[in-house]
Inverse folding.
């Protein structure tokens, strides 16, 4: 048979493998797999060799074939471009493999082993330590970009009571490379992207090559640069992590030209609440405003430096980005016009905080970092600031705490899609509360991120508080279709009632009356798919000694 | 013919008139007319005489007939009991007539004449006065209950710059007659309701006899006791009224037993956000909590005295109220159980404010007081407090300012349907800004209630900012069906952008960025049909001298 067709067996086998690869590359359901993933899958051990063989056979490169085959669906998908995953796209289970191996390489490994055996974590001394101070820098080895997962190997292991200084980087730093990246070895390592090499290739929970969704190379779903995760020794599912934000400082520009100064970026982007409602031309448009945080004022104020309208950007991999489809695409300065003198009589009192603080979700696979949920995540509440404490229910061994999406200032609603996105470094104390010791604690009954400030309890409601479970396979697209403040309000109401009944011992009637006459509900954000409404309960309402005593 | 049937002509005429009355009383489309209205309409001049004749003819009283005829539709309507008007109910144009004549009598008069010639207003001296101080008590002659209308004759006329002390009464005072009404001649005159006489018969914008809607006698749609209206001389449509709240005090109990003390009521009622979501039995239920405002603490705190579960109440006209279908129904103390010791470790810092502040809508007819709209009305924002200023666009000659729905404290959202409803007296200065002088003023571009506090601008968005126009004939029911925080958020966004562009001279891009990084959006209320989201713009953001200078 082989002779009849003029082929040797090995040639036939190669032919079949190429055909399988050709089919898979043309199948959008395999779009989450990289080209390398696909060629390895069918027995090619060398992607350069595969590429040459493919081109010889089909007269196009694997990437070109993939693009052509998916052109029609690309066009459809572009029209429904959304921050979440396109409806109907199903991620195969094996995509749960994380992108970074224990040593920072690209080699994947078994999920459970990694979470259980954090190879990069320091080995603790056998005796219990208290208050040891760690430093966690932000670089391409210590961050994960755009997703949460129980499968990400921890970059640090701590004991309860330890203090960790965690550097965080804003994913919007490339909006002004000169001010926010240049000279900063950590930021440079994270954002490094040339035609030859992209240090952080995996961005977001979707396919590494997201071009089939009308997105650029390496742009999946989920956008936040998160530092971590941190493995907390002895943390088990059901425990509660208390994360105290002891201090917080803006990251200085490492460019000598801007010595001692700090900058941030605000992108009024296509996922903003305003985008379909613009009044003035050209419509639609995306506008980036660069702010300076006035460090000589103690960081207490920010002012705008300039803004620019987004122009189509071709990334180093050759993909054109007509919109800000993914933060982190290098901006060609020659292509934009800086408008200086904007917001010239405006000074913004800063509210530096972390937009993202999360433990790993219990679900397997990679979880889009945009929608907040029971595990915390992209809460985007400016009250997650210095002096505040965040309580999170541990879902997996070690908790796997990540922090990111740093903001210099945000208003309740984060209306245009982003805050003043600005790299920050925080000092955190991490305290573990074992499940068996939670009784009578205010956080005993936690299934959402609870924030405590010196004056207030801040409870977070979401449109769909457990959207991954609620929507199942469709969660990653459905959550963006079903955004609703009304539902978030209902969730915040339910959580507040529950908190008042369990943590404060009120009857339902007492809780409902108190909520109506004294608890304030506000709009956390309307841009993260899973929209948020928070409830603010002042501690001064209570005179029973469980909180700061009321005056008088 | 008359002899053939054994009737005289006058007997025949009476017979025909009775038949017409019989038909109209059985027609739910005439349900907004009182029985007297109907008998007058068909030529009876004496309602007692009519009643006797009717009973003689039909062997039931007019009221009984009306009830029987409408029983089926009552049952249907009861099932869809809602705060607004039932869908499909159309108010004939002639219902525009207000209930109170210029002298406080029940005789109606032509609408335009009344607004143009406020007979009860003091005659002003010819010279322009400034800062004259008026007192407007609250009694059955100075309040209107549950509706706004350009047709309500003013009870006071003032000049721009005048100061008016306005007493306001809470419509929930009958929840504890002893503490909130007894001995208070103003409150007693407003709430007086016996089988023989109901001082304020017209309550709400609906039919005076609302029994066909499953509501009690005299319970229309709209619930707030409002004092006024106040006619502002020279105010013309297009002008802006600036209403400054100079001072504000709780109303003391007039019962010697509670000398020097003040009380309020919080009703967790069927129109609350929580009502369909109760956890504990019995479900559903309505609960009233009586609070005391700690006057010896300067009114700065409130605490609960007791609560009680609502029990079916039979009003003095004989109608049973299984739910709190309308505030103001006398509560039979023997029918309820007072639970003392509730919320015993809770003290609520008060936020005394006026829930309702309104100019007359431009529409004719009576307008339900519950849904806020462009004319202000039931804003229910606790920031409408001492030191705040409310700007309202004048819609009709004189503006016709009304104030009511006083609250001792409310949380953002007013979740259970009410605040601590507590009678208050305020001192207001009313300043008229003529349309031609508005240029460059922050309130130049106003089509909603704008609130200014010493530190902030507070802009009010609603689900349907001009619902009367938007929904036309169906507005009074539609607004309750279409409540949505998402729409209110959109409206608040649009208003905030407009304010920043017109009052602060920002470009659209500047406004949108500033909104996202520094403006806070909160949930005003989710219980007034037309749900509210407000935007808070801190004055300290601006350093251009148009507001308080920023620090540093």
């Amino acid at each position: 048979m082989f002779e009849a067709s003029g082929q040797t067996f090995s040639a036939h086998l190669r032919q079949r493998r190429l055909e399988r690869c050709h089919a898979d590359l043309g199948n959008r359901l395999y779009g989450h797999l990289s080209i390398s993933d696909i060629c390895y899958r069918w027995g090619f051990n060398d992607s350069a060799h595969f590429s040459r063989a493919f081109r010889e056979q089909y007269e196009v490169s694997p990437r070109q074939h993939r693009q052509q085959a998916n052109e029609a669906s690309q066009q459809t998908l572009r029209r429904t471009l959304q921050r979440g995953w396109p409806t109907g796209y199903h991620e195969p289970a094996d995509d749960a493999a994380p992108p970074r191996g224990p040593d920072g390489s690209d080699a994947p490994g078994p999920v459970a082993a990694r979470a259980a055996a954090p190879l990069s974590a320091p080995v603790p001394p056998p005796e219990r330590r208290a208050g040891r101070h760690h430093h966690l820098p932000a670089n391409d080895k210590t961050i994960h970009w755009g997703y949460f997962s129980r499968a990400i190997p921890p970059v640090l292991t701590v004991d309860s009571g330890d203090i960790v200084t965690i550097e965080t980087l804003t994913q919007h730093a490339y909006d002004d490379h000169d001010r926010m990246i240049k000279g900063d070895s950590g930021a440079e390592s994270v954002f490094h992207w040339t035609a030859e090499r992209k240090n952080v290739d995996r961005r977001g929970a979707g396919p590494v090559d997201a071009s089939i969704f009308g997105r650029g190379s390496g742009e999946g779903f989920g956008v936040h640069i998160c530092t971590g995760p941190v493995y907390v020794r002895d943390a088990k599912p059901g425990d509660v992590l208390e994360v105290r934000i002891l201090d917080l400082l803006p990251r200085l520009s490492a460019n000598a030209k801007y010595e001692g100064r700090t900058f941030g970026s605000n992108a009024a982007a296509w996922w903003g609440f305003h985008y379909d409602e613009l009044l003035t031309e050209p419509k639609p448009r995306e506008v980036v405003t660069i702010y300076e945080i006035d460090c000589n004022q103690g960081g207490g104020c920010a002012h705008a430096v300039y803004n620019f309208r987004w122009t189509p950007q071709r990334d180093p991999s050759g993909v054109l980005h007509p919109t800000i489809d993914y933060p982190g695409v290098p901006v060609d300065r020659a292509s934009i016009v800086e408008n200086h003198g904007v917001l010239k009589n405006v000074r913004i009192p800063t509210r530096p905080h972390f937009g993202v603080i999360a433990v790993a979700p219990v679900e397997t696979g990679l979880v889009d970092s945009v929608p907040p949920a029971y595990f915390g995540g992209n809460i985007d509440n400016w009250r997650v600031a210095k002096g505040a404490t965040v309580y999170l229910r541990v879902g997996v061994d070690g908790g796997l705490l990540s922090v990111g999406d740093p903001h210099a200032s945000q208003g309740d609603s984060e209306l245009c899609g982003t805050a003043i996105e600005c790299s920050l470094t925080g000092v955190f104390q991490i305290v573990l509360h074992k499940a068996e010791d939670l009784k009578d604690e205010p956080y005993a009954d936690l299934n959402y991120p609870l924030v405590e400030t010196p004056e207030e309890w801040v409870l977070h409601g979401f449109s769909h508080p457990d959207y991954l479970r609620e929507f199942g396979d469709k969660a990653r697209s459905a959550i963006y279709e079903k955004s609703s403040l009304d539902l978030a309000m209902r969730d915040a109401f339910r959580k507040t009632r529950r908190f008042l009944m369990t943590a404060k011992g009120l009857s339902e009637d007492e809780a409902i009356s108190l909520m109506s006459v004294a608890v304030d509900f506000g709009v956390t954000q309307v841009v993260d798919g899973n929209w948020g409404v928070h409830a603010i309960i002042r501690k001064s309402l209570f005179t029973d000694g469980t909180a700061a005593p009321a005056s008088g």
